[in-house]
Amino acid sequence: PTSPASLGSVDEDVDFVGSDEDLLAGWTDIDFERDEDDVLPALVVSDISVNNGTVTRDDVGGFTITPAANYNGTITVTYKVSDGTTEVTATRSLTVTPVADAPVYDEDEATELTGAVEDEDFAISTADLLDGFSDPDGATSFTITAISVDEGTIEAASGPSSSVANGYTYTPDADFYGEVTLTYTVSDGVNTTEVTKTFTVEAVNDAPRGDAATITGVTEDTPSAFTKAQLLADISDIDGGAVNNSIMGVPPSDLTVTAISATHGTFVYNADDDTYDFTPDENYNGEASITYSVSDGIDSAEFTSTFTIAAVNDAPEGEGATITGATEDEDLVLTTAQLLADISDVEDDDLTITDIEATHGTITYDEGTDSYTFTPDENYSGEATITYTVSDGEDTTEFTSNFTIAGANDDPTAPAAIDLGSVEEDTEIEVSVEDLLAGWTDIDGDTEFTVSNLSAGDGFTITLSDDETYYTVTAPDDYVGEIAFEYEVSDGNGGTGFGSATLDVTNVYDAPELDAPVELEAIDEDTTATVSTEDLLQGWSSADGLTLTLGEVTATNAEVTEEDGVYTITPDANFHGTVVISYTILDGEGDPVEATLDLTVNSVIDLVESDETTTLGATDEDLILTGEDDIDGTGNSLGNVLTGNDGANKLDGKTGNDTMYGGDGDDIYVVDSSSDVASEQIVDGVDDGGFDMVRSSATFTLGAYIEVLRLNGSANINGTGNSMSNYL
Questions:
Q1: Topology adopted by domain 104-202
Q2: Confidence of residue 164 (pLDDT cuts 50, 70, 90)
Q3: CATH 2.60.40.10 is held by the domain 418-506
Q4: 302 pLDDT exceeds 80?
Q5: Beta bridge partners of residue 593, listed in sequence order
Q6: 76-116 per-position pLDDT tens digit
Q7: CATH class of this structure's domain 513-602
Q8: Residues 336-387: tens digit of each pLDDT
Q9: Torsion-angle region of 494 (φ positive above 0: left; ψ -120 to 50: alpha; else: beta)
Q10: What letters, b where the CB count within 10 A reaches 16 and e where it falls short, cover 8-47?
Q11: Which CATH number fits domain 6-97: 3.40.1350, 2.60.40, 1.10.10, 3.30.70?
């Protein structure tokens, strides 16, 4: 086969794209005829090569020749052509037409850009950017016509000129660090070349940044807790793992709050739950702020959050009242003003006491005096408290006042009425002091009790024994029933109590008794008296309340007859003196009671006057001798009164208690009893002048104006004279 010599021409640095048909153009094979397109289908091209540049084949019979960079001239293309039987090596020429070349960049010869630092300007010289450039056409002067970066900005050092000998200033974006792609165009005056190269902006640590926490919901006098997440919610660290902290929802783990302070309050870190506790100043409301430092471990930044402490009503505050003067068993009055004295309200609201209670006592309110009365428990002394609630109309506060109830001596405590048992009627009653003190107590511990003022009502007499250990009680006669005693007990320390005791006086049979006997009217001798049953029972009574009746009625020296309850007493004839009425009182139970009642019978004198010697009859009492003759008078067994005359009389009263009076004569008195009376009559204080004698058979003493006493008989008797010169 034969082939043409040239493939044509191509500009420098431009690929030539051809096909097998181009290489077979002009080829013939005498063994085959061409088709209508002058192609020998049976010819096959292979092993294409060039003496300059490179050649590549594709799968559809095409090839590409790439001349060496900047090459111009002839390229010899060598290839083989086969008809299936014979293979021929052939050549063709390709003319590379020269063109002007753009500058060429050799990265290996270029200067590496270093020294860029985060957040700092980076100076890049023009020389560094042109390092590594050359021109195939031999140009030696290059300019930069355009320059840009993908991160940050770059400007000519002296202005925006695209060709500045002094170079360029690169300004990274804030907080940017990492790789920057720099793209610029270099011109040789005819052609340009664009180059891309990279350099690194070195990271530096950035302080945390952002906004202080937004704080809401803080109210007066109420602590608020803030978590670390709340304080760091709007703060981030550009160097941290989370670029946008608010999206993360939690702060980066390497951010910490290192210091915190507040105005109008205090902050305290609570390690137990990793919170920061803010406590507002007491009663403050209004604007406040917290300032806190946030660290990333290297640098820190300070943040200030201003917020409002919302006002709330303040409850009353202060201290419970100071209470003094409380004394055992005595009421203590406390005014409302006293209880509120140390309590105030920030808003100056009016304060009221809404509830109050006490220990060891009760407390009541008196609206009229606006005061409270505390009444201690009976006999209690020691510590006590009053707890009360104070309201300002909206909020309340409870206050407690502790105080001491001073001890006082307590009165002894009486037991229930003491039962002293029983005694029988009309027996001696003794009540011991020990029995009266049985069961008495004293809360103060006193035990030395004394009893005084024991009483039992009207009719009773009570006497304390000399040793003061018992009382003797005398009840009214025949008293039966309960004796109710009342008495006073002292503890020796000023305390007294009042007690009671009972003693039962049991009934013992009482015989009828006479309280005030009736007095019977006297009667004259030889008359009668009448006495009724009522008269005889008058003054008699039964202590046991029994009905009294009469038994037999008798009388001395008298006869007794009865008709319809009326008794007639008839004294013996000529009897005078006392008639003793004897009778019995019956009560239906006991033995009859003997009783007597005296009836006086008045003497009616039986007077005998005689002028001769006379002896009185048996019932005559008195004898008067008349005349002047010497006569005698003799009595009887009664008590006679014998009176002589002016003669010499002998007066003998016989038995009985006699009284004898002599006259002017020399009289003789016969005495047989020491009870007899012998006496001379005295007229105007003068004796009759007679010489008188007493003859006595009994011991006797001479009466006045009798001179002689003669003792008769053999009995041992005595005689006694008078103031006269006597003969005995």
A1: Immunoglobulin-like (2.60.40)
A2: very low
A3: yes
A4: yes
A5: 585
A6: 999 999 988 889 999 999 999 988 888 889 899 899 999 99
A7: mainly beta
A8: 999 999 999 888 899 999 999 999 999 999 999 999 999 999 889 999 999 9
A9: left
A10: eebebbeebebebebbbeebebeeeeeeeeeebeebebee
A11: 2.60.40
The beta strand positions in 507-615, using DSSP E, are: 513-514, 523-524, 529-532, 540-541, 549-555, 558-563, 566-571, 577-586, 593-602, 607-610, 614-615
Largest CA distance in the chain: 262
- CATH 2.60.98 corresponds to the domain 209-309: no
**Rounded to an integer, what distance in angstroms lies between the CA atom of residue 544 and that of residue 434?**
33
For the domain 317-405, what is the CATH code?
2.60.40
Rounded to the nearest 5 percent, the helix, strand and coil shares of the chain are: 5, 45, 50
Q: Where are the beta strands (DSSP E) in 378-480?
A: 382-391, 396-405, 418-424, 429-432, 450-455, 461-464, 470-474
DSSP state of 361: E
SS3 of 655-675: CCCCEEEECCCCCEEEECCCC
Are 393 and 315 spatial neighbours (Cβ–Cβ below 8 Å)?
no
Q: What is the pLDDT of residues 468-497, one digit of tens each?
A: 999 999 999 878 899 999 999 999 888 899
Alpha-carbon torsion (353, 359, 365, 371), positive or negative: negative
Q: Does residue 492 come out as left (phi exceeding 0), alpha (psi in the -120 to 50 range) or beta? A: left
Query: Using one digit for the tens of pLDDT, what is the confidence trace for 208-234?
Result: 888 999 999 999 889 999 998 889 999
Q: Tell me, what's the pLDDT at 33?
A: 59
Burial (0-12, 13-18, 19+ Cβ within 10 Å), 385: middle
To which residue do tokens 């960049």 refer? 105
Written as six digits, the tokens of 70 are 């900047």
Spatial contact of 228 and 249, defined as CB atoms under 8 Å apart: no
How would you class 441 by CB atoms within 10 Å of its CB: exposed for 0-12, middle for 13-18, buried for 19 or more?
A: middle
Mean pLDDT of 193-206: 91
What whole-number distance in Å separates Cα of residue 728 and Cα of residue 711? 8
CATH 2.60.40.10 residue window(s) in the chain: 418-506, 513-602
**Pick from 82, 71, 73: which is nearest to 23 by CA?**
82
The Cα 75–Cα 112 span in angstroms is 37
- H helices present in 262-404, as ranges: 336-339
Alpha-carbon separation of residue 332 from 48, 387, 403, 404 (angstroms): 131, 15, 12, 12
Structure tokens at 260: 């915190």
Which residues make Cβ contacts (< 8 Å) with residue 231, sequence separation at least 6? 213, 257, 260, 276, 292, 294
